[in-house]
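User: Can you recover a sequence for this backbone? Please restate the input before giving your answer.

Assistant: Of course. Working from this structure:
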């Protein structure tokens, strides 16, 4: 019985209720318990073994529970903790769950049972019922991290308190590749690093790493800074070849041939690969892109999805062709966007989800089971690089648009505005409650209401300035004047003696 891992679409589907538990359900439950124990887990849901029925098995140390058609009838309290999942080996997600739950279900004989659970067991039950609805830990994660190496063997601590208490998984590193490949890795920024590490940990042979040249950094550009992928490669003891567009065009195909790579894995390399390079490895080259292609083709998929207010984005692995982000889709996974996501937090989740998806895609390719499907034509949202015009806050936009822009440009390059001729970066804003359409309106001189001019300070909230937008208003919570450091909105108000009617924006 194989436990399905991320990237497998069965994990994202809703399971159907069991009519009446019979012999086949009993047999399935028994085999799931065996698979769960073998994997050192404490819970397993049927979709995780590819069966879309509402069945889950749980054993947190007090004997096995087999639950058919379980549903939560009551819950209370809330608790934040780290949890793992057998379908996401090596990952821990920080998730807020109810502290206690009442679950109603059938047992394998079809008798009604009730489980009152709190703490760890309550968490496990909520997790398994999520699986039955196609919900996985990444969907609920406030943060995600890899299981630290030293926790690899013994599956967390005690009764599941604290980090490493993988709810379900006996945490391990990335799953071992069934068909290890000789991989040439091509990537440059931080986004690419989790995939490089995952390839090594899964047992693929990374025969060499291609990355862009070191770049001048620091004040005056006198120091040279190696790209993050080069630093990770050095740590992993891997051979590195660096080059820009010209070197790639003239020399890379020979390098890949010399390395004897089966496949090229490309993650945010930053140079378009000529067809000669794409054809050199036996299995061609695959690319990990941080969006649900064909949406957000281009250089800034994460920022653009946030700016557009998308609720869901994702990662896609394509078989590369000569176009930019146009190849056939081998695997794709959705990742939800939280209301408070910044480009930074979303980037980190997508990078980890993408690493898992690349491993999944390589398994399919190595086993000859990959079936790249062409991207739907005519439906693509472009994601052009962020330019200076994207960074300036247009106060005539809605409060919602401004709030999204601020999150999309955090941590780089930051949204900015101008106050008394000085550039100010805006790091955190909050939309003011109230009807989005009307925004804060005041009594006009003739008894009617007038809309305040966008950019004007119309009030204060905990000492922070409330600024009118085209519709609605935003509270400026964290600001950074040019040349200064970050400060709270209230410190800014005090430092600059900001008063009602003062204006942000303009010049
Ligand atoms: Ni799970």
């Amino acid at each position: 019985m194989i436990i399905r891992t991320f990237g497998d679409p069965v994990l994202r589907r809703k399971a159907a209720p069991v009519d009446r538990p019979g012999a086949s359900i009993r047999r399935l439950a028994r085999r799931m318990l065996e698979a769960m124990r073998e994997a050192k887990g404490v819970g397993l849901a049927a979709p995780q073994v590819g069966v879309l029925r509402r069945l889950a098995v749980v054993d947190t140390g007090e004997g096995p529970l087999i639950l058919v058609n379980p549903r939560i009838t009551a819950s209370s309290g809330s608790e934040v903790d780290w949890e793992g999942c057998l379908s996401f080996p090596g990952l821990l997600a920080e998730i807020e769950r109810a502290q206690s739950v009442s679950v109603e279900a059938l047992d394998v004989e079809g008798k009604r049972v009730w489980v009152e659970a709190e703490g760890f067991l309550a968490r496990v039950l909520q997790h398994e019922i999520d699986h039955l609805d196609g919900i996985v830990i990444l969907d609920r994660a406030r943060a995600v991290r890899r299981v630290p190496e030293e926790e690899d063997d013994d599956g967390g601590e005690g009764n599941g308190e604290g980090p490493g208490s993988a709810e379900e998984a006996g945490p391990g590193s990335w799953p071992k590749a069934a068909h290890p490949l000789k991989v040439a890795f091509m990537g440059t920024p931080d986004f690419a690093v989790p995939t490089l590490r995952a390839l090594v940990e899964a047992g693929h042979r990374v025969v060499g790493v291609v990355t862009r040249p070191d770049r001048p950094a620091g004040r005056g550009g006198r120091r040279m800074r190696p790209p993050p992928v080069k630093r990770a490669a050095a740590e992993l003891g891997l051979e590195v070849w660096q080059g820009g567009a010209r070197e790639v065009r003239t020399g890379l195909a020979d390098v890949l041939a010399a390395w004897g790579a089966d496949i090229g894995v490309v993650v945010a390399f930053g140079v378009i690969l000529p067809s000669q390079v794409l054809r050199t490895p036996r299995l061609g080259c695959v690319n990990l892109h941080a969006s649900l292609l064909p949406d957000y083709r281009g250089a800034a998929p994460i920022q653009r999805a946030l700016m557009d207010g998308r609720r869901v984005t994702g990662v896609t692995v394509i078989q590369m062709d000569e176009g930019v982000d146009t190849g056939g889709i081998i695997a794709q996974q959705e990742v939800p966007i939280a209301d408070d996501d910044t480009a930074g937090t979303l980037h980190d989740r997508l990078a980890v989800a993408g690493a898992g998806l690349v491993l999944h895609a390589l398994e399919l390719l190595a086993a000859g089971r990959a079936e790249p499907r062409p991207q739907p034509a005519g439906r693509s949202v472009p994601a052009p690089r962020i330019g200076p015009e994207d960074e300036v806050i247009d106060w005539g936009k809605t409060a919602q648009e401004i709030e999204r822009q601020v999150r999309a440009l955090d941590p780089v390059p930051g949204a900015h505005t101008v106050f008394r001729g000085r550039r100010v970066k805006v790091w955190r804003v909050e939309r003011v409650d109230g009807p989005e359409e009307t925004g804060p309106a005041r009594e006009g001189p003739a008894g009617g209401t007038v809309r305040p001019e966008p950019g004007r300070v119309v009030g204060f909230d905990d000492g922070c300035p409330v600024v009118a937008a085209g519709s609605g208003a935003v509270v400026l919570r964290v600001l950074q004047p040019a040349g200064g450091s970050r400060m709270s909105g209230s410190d800014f108000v005090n430092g600059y003696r900001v008063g009602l009617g003062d204006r942000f924006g303009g010049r």
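That completes the design. Confidence is low (pLDDT under 50) at residues 149-172.
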